[in-house]
């Protein structure tokens, strides 16, 4: 198994299909249907930003998943102390390879990446109805420290 940073926007856009389909099925009011060309263009603009890191997970030279990370720096202000975090935007493992430890290995790599950069906080969020993500992150000892709520009118 190999995990490495990547700039292969075409591959990341293809691997994104599962995550995007999940979001659009759970929340069709907010998410468009997956469109490879549009997703590829959106990711292409992110690849030019040094704060974003895309990791590719491969096994036997087959792409099995990816992680989309962001190094965030929150400046100190009158209300809060400053801090840095590794923010996980997305993790996706191809459907046929789930529950085989690939996601856990990717999270271990992210933890090591944060540690090597002197960052002691990994943050993420997931959509409430995404029970697979909720269970996975709970198993990885993530703690809920904020709740995001909304009201429709």
TrEMBL record:
Residues 10-153 form the N-acetyltransferase domain. CDD domains: NAT_SF. The keyword Acyltransferase applies. It comes from the Bacteria. Keywords: Acyltransferase, Transferase. InterPro entries: Acyl_CoA_acyltransferase, GNAT_dom, N-term/lysine_N-AcTrnsfr. This is GNAT family N-acetyltransferase.
